[in-house]
Amino acid sequence: MVAVVVLLAVAAIGYATRTGPRTPANVRWVANASYLTQLASFRSRLARYRVGLAGVAVVALTGGIAAGVLLARPVDKQVLNSELATRDIVLCLDVSGSMVEYDAEIVSRFIDLVEGFDGERIALSIWNQTSRTVFPLTDDYGLVTEELELALAALDFDMDSYMNGSFDPDDLDRILRFVAGTELSTEMSSSLIGDGLASCGRLFDEADTERSRTIILASDNQVLGTPIYTLSAGADFVAERDIGLIGIYSGESTDTSAGEQKEFEDVVATHDGLYFEASDPSAVDAIIERIQDQQAVDLDATPEVVVSDRPATAATVLVIAFAGLVLLLWRLRT
Question: Which residues have C-beta within 8 Å of that of residue 127, sequence separation ≥ 6?
């Protein structure tokens, strides 16, 4: 309707500014004026007049196209699937001293995982002697990506430089701020994986709703001290709450690492989970497939099509064309 009104207004302006037919009575003849058409000033004004006429044609055509687009009612269509909103994933990261050199790689994998998600809620919890929630479950992927990139920058710390004293103080401050809240100065313990896993299991809300819940646990399983939950007990704790478990192992090779890795893998396997090493190139795709295909809650939801009007661009072009047409007609008239 707006387009029709604008077109009528343009037509009215054109009609009002018309010169009408010429007759001998309203033509003033000037003798010896044939040379005027050869003057540079005359040719210049005539060229500008012709350019103006061409401009009027182009602007009028542009306005007509914009009006046609508006009459066609441009819209955006978005298909929403409510199944995606029933998946919750907690990223559960060991930030003990033995994991610092590997955590940046793990977080980089987390970022790759997030890029493959669409609608799932995600949380990040870090732990050592105790745990800290970096961000709770959210589907704000801008926030998730920003926080993971901050975590990546903080954890990308060279431990060798720390040992030989050549580290950048700013880098050390950054990682210390990030892991703050995961250590207890009164206890000699580290990497309490069972406690960390149980803490991650408590981050899931909406316990009375049917949702798919998954923990992605990354650790080297190098436990120091006596935890409240062993790894097996922590896995039992989350399994009782119907929380799926995906394990990502990463760590240095030591005299005990083979046994620690095997325990980690066995606990994940006995709880019907997926196990990967951080260096496994297939890990990201396999984890996304598990979350999307095997652990999603199938609600038999019918996809919802959301239709939104998008007239802004065409309307803006039409208004600009109208203003330009009025200006050009005025210039041609004068």
Answer: 92, 93, 94, 95, 182, 192, 195, 196, 199, 200
